[in-house]
Amino acid sequence: MTEHRWAPGQTVVERFVRPDGSIGQHHPLRVVSDDGETLLGWLPLGTPIVGSRLADGRSLREAPLEQRFREPRVRVPDIWHGTSTLRLIPDDAWSSVWWFFEADGRFRDWYVNLEIPRGRTETGPDRVDGILDLVVTPGAGWKWKDEDEAEAAVEAGRLTTAELDTLRAEGERMGALAERGAYPFDGTHTDFRPDPGWPAPELPAGLRPTGPAGPAR
After folding, report:
1. What is the DSSP letter of 160?
2. Is the pLDDT reported for residue 98 higher than 50?
3. Closest Cα to residue 116, out of 82, 91, 138?
4. Quick one: which of 157, 163, 164, 179 has its CA closest to 110?
5. What burial class does residue 73 get, using C-beta atoms within 10 Å of its C-beta: 0-12 exposed, 13-18 middle, 19+ buried?
6. Which residues 6+ apart lie within 8 Å of 13 measured at CB?
7. How far apart are the first and last CA of the chain?
8. 99 touches 190 (CB < 8 A)
9. Which residues are within 8 A (CB) of 128 and not within 5 positions of it... i.e. 6 or more apart?
10. What per-residue confidence (pLDDT) applies to 4?
11. Distance separating alpha carbons of residues 29 and 86, to the nearest angstrom
12. Residue 124 in contact with residue 181, Cβ under 8 Å?
């Protein structure tokens, strides 16, 4: 069990590590629970984060697929948009599960973010984004997301073939759980509401880069 463990209500920062070891995005999470091996954290809609863009100012989605993982990236101030997310982050798993909630608090679906675990620091968990993901829709099964991006990432050296194979196997494992309606896809946390006394999580002052803000991916 890790020496780093956080109490409910604390803020931690989930960091996404690039292949060269540099840190890309920073997402502040309000801790819901943590047993020292699995963190459950809350990132509400509208929370300021550290995002990333291509060095020329384009978002990743604005760049052609063949450029997305070859052009240099910079960190920029961003806002978490679209949905609020509850994240289940097991230290050793090659995935985290995100519950997506609409602005009115209604649960929408699950997002399985395939990732390479990099342990914990005193400020939060470190992960490498695995590009390939799953979307699990209640009553409608699951599907892969961003398969084309994952292949492009391998071609660009952003991921290795072995890493993608492991990520895909993890996706198959999580998809099988979804098909059975097993935890975490059994309805647990779909009625989640944050403690009304919690303010939105904030980034530490030293992690707030200067520059124009834009919506996060």
Report:
1. -
2. yes
3. 91
4. 179
5. middle
6. 26, 27, 28, 29, 123, 124, 203, 204, 207
7. 32
8. yes
9. 16, 17, 18, 19, 115, 116, 118
10. 87
11. 9
12. no
Q: Which residues contact 206 (CB under 8 A, 6 or more apart)?
A: none
Q: Note whether 17 and 23 are within 8 A (CB).
A: yes
Q: What is the pTM of this model?
A: 0.91
Closest C-alpha to 11, from 125, 100, 88, 123: 123
Per-residue CA distances from 102 to 40, 48, 85, 190 (Å)? 19, 18, 9, 11
Residues 6+ apart with CB under 8 A from 205: none
Torsion of CA 55, 216, 27, 204, to 10 degrees: 70
The span from the CA of 78 to the CA of 111, in Å, is 20
Q: Given a cut of 90, is residue 121 above it in pLDDT?
A: yes
Check pLDDT > 60 for residue 2: no
Helical residues (DSSP H) of 100-156, grouped into ranges? 147-155
Q: What is the mean pLDDT of residues 191-213?
A: 79
70 phi/psi in degrees, rounded to 5: -115, -25
